[in-house]
Amino acid sequence: MRSPVSNNQRMNKVSLDDGLVAFQCPETEGIFLPVASYFRWLSKQPERLSHLPKTTSDPEIVDSANAKICPESGQLMQRYKVGHGFSFYLDRSPLGSVWFDKGEWEALKARQYHDELHLIFTAPWQDGVRTEERIRTERRILEERLGSDLLGQLEDIKSKLDVCEYRDMALAYLHS
């Protein structure tokens, strides 16, 4: 198996987890995970793990934006944003195999997302990623224009209105 990022350098076979075989680029430490290996491993997992929160000790990520050619199919790999607190992208082969730049597998595993790898490439997951980005952008714009203090006060009022029996009356009052 040849690396998609290091001049077709031969990759080394590695074990990412018990029964999960992948290939690692000796130069970049990136990992190529064949789809068949992943689904064999996933089928032997007893249950989905609960996600863990982001910590300050998350692994360092070296995300490469360069186009990659799948070592299995010779076709261009497509990039997908992971989202859900992860700022990096994964590259996926048309066959379903995945390329992880240095630290990406470790980051997913540290927060127990590695058993949901196959879901990252689905429309519902990607829709969720876009929704997260839209909400973050809207909040950033509101904070820039209103200031942190006023936005905080408005969020407090909003949370109170969400459970208020006379919400419409309160909104009408604010609008008048």
Please tell me about this protein's structure.
- This protein is an alpha+beta fold.
- Helix content is 36%, strand content 17%.
- The chain is built from five helices and six strands; from the N terminus they run E-E-E-H-E-E-E-H-H-H-H.
- It has a six-stranded antiparallel β-sheet.
- A hairpin with a 2-residue loop joins strand 4 and strand 5 (86-92).
- The radius of gyration is 21 Å and the shape is elongated.
- It starts with 11 loop residues before the first strand and ends with a helix.
Helix percentage: 25-40%
Number of strands: 6
Distance between the termini: 68 Å
What general form does the structure show? elongated
Query: Average pLDDT value?
Result: 91
Question: Which structural class is indicated by helix and strand composition?
Answer: alpha+beta
Q: Spans of 5+ residues with little confidence (pLDDT < 50)?
A: none
- Counting DSSP H or I runs of 4 or more residues, the number of helices is 5
Q: The biggest beta sheet, please?
A: 6 strands, antiparallel
What order do the helices and strands follow?
EEEHEEEHHHH
Strand order of the largest sheet: 1-2-3-6-5-4
Beta-strand content bin:
15-25%
- The radius of gyration is 21 Å
